[in-house]
Design goal:
The protein is an alpha/beta fold. It has 13 helices and 13 strands. Keywords: Oxidoreductase.
């Protein structure tokens, strides 16, 4: 069934990609890659279902393991992008998923009320949520009276550390994709760039040069590399962080302004030099195309800045020293670490954070455990 779902997704990739681009403005090529990525998870969990060592409300991320584990699903779709969720439901029926197994609820004006109805329902045994830490805490309070099982993938503040012995070209390549994928609106986007003082100017020059090559515009234009932010509140948040950096002495060497000629939610990709850890972007998740570069002198300093946040979803660092790689990977207080890479997500690996970035894991065999219950049966056969 899940294999069929993956197949019909790929068969409908052109239509789904257009829908994704129409909904949130992302470039069409990025939308196509996202569909292939989602289909790969369906295939992986199809294999895990036959090795599987209630109902729920959740984002689409955990839909695959939940169904693989035999659960029915209620997906509360985001108010900003409901159509892709509805399309996914239609494809599930075409793939042979029985009616009532995968359900989609949409809401715009009363999202909070709709969520409360779902979380308080006695039919819902498990809640999985991807979103802000603030909303995650609300859901915890709503589900705790009934002791419902809960998993959360919340906000992050991912450090991106470049040590003095790093491969600078590789670090720049990864920084571009890790920061600006989805115009900086993914939960694992790099947020705090920490560059060793010995390579700071070299990295900054190469990084700025690459960002200058971006082309913003209509996602259906094949030449477009980056699209808009999701709504005006996101634009205001990004602009506020840039203004704060300027006021605190940061040098905005690229971007730092809205692009109304492209439409209201476009913000120019922004690079800030001479940044420091006291600026807003280094303390609160940006969720936008802003990269502030902070220089550091010692490994201990970089780790201290990285770990001071209450968030702990992902972190990235670059070094050729193998001993340092193991040492720093262990010391970073995050759930996922990319060592000399910005790619950390795969169907077979656990995805999730620690501290106020949530708990529970998506992907891997551990994800199936979130949707199953261990029962011990002791059976005695009389003589």
């Amino acid at each position: 069934m899940l294999q069929n779902w993956a197949r019909v997704m790929r068969e409908s990739k052109a239509d789904l990609a257009q829908l994704l681009t129409w909904e949130n403005g992302k470039p069409i090529n990025e939308a196509r890659a996202e569909i292939e990525y989602a289909a790969s998870f369906l295939e992986w969990f199809a294999g895990e279902a036959v090795k599987s060592y209630g109902d729920l409300i959740q984002p689409s991320n955990p839909t695959r393991p939940a169904i693989a584990a035999g659960c029915a699903v209620v997906l509360k779709a985001p108010a900003e992008t409901p159509l892709s969720a509805l399309a996914l439901a239609e494809l599930s029926l075409r793939a042979g998923v029985p009616k009532g197994v995968f359900n989609v609820v949409t809401a715009d004006e009363n999202t909070v009320g709709t969520g409360h109805i779902l979380t308080s329902s006695p039919l819902v045994q498990k809640v999985s949520f991807a979103g802000s830490t603030r909303v995650g805490k609300i859901l915890m309070s709503q589900t705790s009276p009934a002791l419902k099982r809960l998993s959360m993938e919340l906000g992050g503040l991912a450090p991106f550390i470049v040590f003095e012995d790093a491969d600078i070209e590789r670090a720049v390549d990864s920084a571009i994709s890790c920061k600006f994928r989805g115009s900086g609106q993914t939960c694992v986007c790099a947020n705090v760039f920490l560059i060793h003082k010995q390579v700071y100017h070299t990295f900054a020059a190469k990084f700025v040069h690459r960002v200058k090559q971006f082309r913003l515009g209509n996602g259906f234009d094949a030449a477009t590399t980056h699209g808009p932010l999701i709504h005006d509140k996101a634009v205001a948040r990004v602009d506020d962080q840039v203004k704060d950096a300027r006021e605190q002495g940061g040098r905005v060497v690229l971007g730092g302004y809205l692009l109304p000629e492209l439409r209201s939610n476009f913000y120019a990709p922004t690079v800030i030099l001479d940044a420091h850890a006291g600026m807003k972007f280094a303390q609160d998740e940006t969720i936008g195309p802003v990269a502030g570069l902070i220089h550091f002198s010692t490994e201990e300093e970089a780790i201290a800045i990285s770990n001071r946040s209450d968030a702990g979803l992902a972190g990235y660092f670059f070094s050729r020293d193998v001993k340092r790689c193991w040492r720093v990977a262990e010391k970073l207080a995050v759930g996922m670490v990319g060592v000399n890479t910005g790619m950390i997500s795969d169907p077979s690996t656990p995805f999730g954070g620690i501290k106020q970035s949530g708990f529970g894991r998506e992907g891997s065999k551990y994800d199936l455990d979130e949707y199953t219950t261990i029962k011990t049966v002791t059976f005695s056969v009389g003589a």
